[in-house]
């Protein structure tokens, strides 16, 4: 795959909002003293640790970043951690997009959070439809470049469609964009391809987003992280709230990163996905079962509403995605455990009179 290096000097500095280039962040007690042992009388904490959480959490997430760096064979400075990747999406928009001036673009159908955060920050938001295969192509890349966005969000594997976005066209965007490209990889652990983590260093305007919410089953603990060059990472650390991730979540994430139960559960989900796809494909009334690199499957029907209602009556809740562009009459089905998946197929077959 052809890979050009973008080596504009101070490129990211030029993209950062002007008032933030020389911004000095709040310096908390934990910023100024990062000793591990000692008598800590600097943060007005309660000295009696009857609940084990009397101390403020590490604002730099050092142990968590060490664990991530180890896990991926990367450096500490390649990572920033957030209160879910949603927090990092907000930080990226606030770091690069000037309100009333810059444009932010996302692909459709896709994840809804980018638009909401742009609206909150009064940043102009644009959406461009993917093609019939829910992917990028030359035509769409040109459409995007014409809008000249400061930030482009690409979800890969995409939600709700499940497919990976072709890296060839992402590279075209990276090389021609006068701005930052974010690849939201919330579902990457379910995918057979892991291209970008191996290649992100070739691009200085690329940010990868990952999360503990999906494959690691920790959505309630709120931990996401971004992988990018140390310059961007450093700025994201400057503008985030100091204590954005609580101590318990940081500890749990470190433990779960190498947990073998997580790994085997992941394998089960991937195997179940294969089974579900082949079972769904046997049902002729389902017009299309879209391929998936994620932990869900999108299907297209003649009347998605009717199947949705039937499943709901039988106590099975799936997500109707029909209101999204190009998703008329689609349902998004998350991969459940083996018993749940058997019940799902049984109920769909029953609905279409297969038994
Ligand atoms: C679920 C999801 C997220 C949310 O991640 P958190 O880390 O829980 O905030 C981000 N992006 C996409 C595409 C998602 O589907």
Biggest β-sheet description: 7 strands, mixed
What would the principal axes of the Cα set say about the shape? Answer: globular
Strand content: 5-15%
Mean pLDDT, rounded to whole units?
94
Instruction: Give the neighbour order of strands across the main sheet.
Output: 1-7-6-5-4-2-3
Radius of gyration: 22 Å
What is the N-to-C order of secondary-structure elements (H for helix, E for strand)?
Answer: HHHHEHEHEHEHEHEEHHHEEHEEH
Beta-strand segment tally: 11
The parts where pLDDT drops under 50 for at least 5 residues are 1-9
State the share of residues found in helices, binned by percent: 25-40%
Bound molecules: pyridoxal-5'-phosphate
Question: Count of helical segments?
Answer: 14
- C-alpha end-to-end distance: 49 Å
Structural class: alpha/beta
Plain-language structure description:
The chain is 38% helix and 14% strand. The chain has helices at residues 11-15, 18-21, 29-32, 62-72, 84-96, 113-120, 138-147, 167-176, 196-199, 230-239, 247-257, 260-281, 304-313, 338-351, and strands at residues 79-82, 103-108, 124-129, 151-155, 180-184, 206-211, 224-227, 288-289, 296-300, 319-320, 330-334. The strands form 2 sheets. A 7-stranded mixed beta sheet has the order 1-7-6-5-4-2-3, with helices on both faces. A 4-stranded antiparallel beta sheet has the order 8-9-11-10. Strand 4, helix 8 and strand 5 form a beta-alpha-beta unit. Helix 7 (138-147) packs parallel to helix 8. The model is unreliable at 1-9 (pLDDT under 50). Bound molecules: pyridoxal-5'-phosphate (PLP).
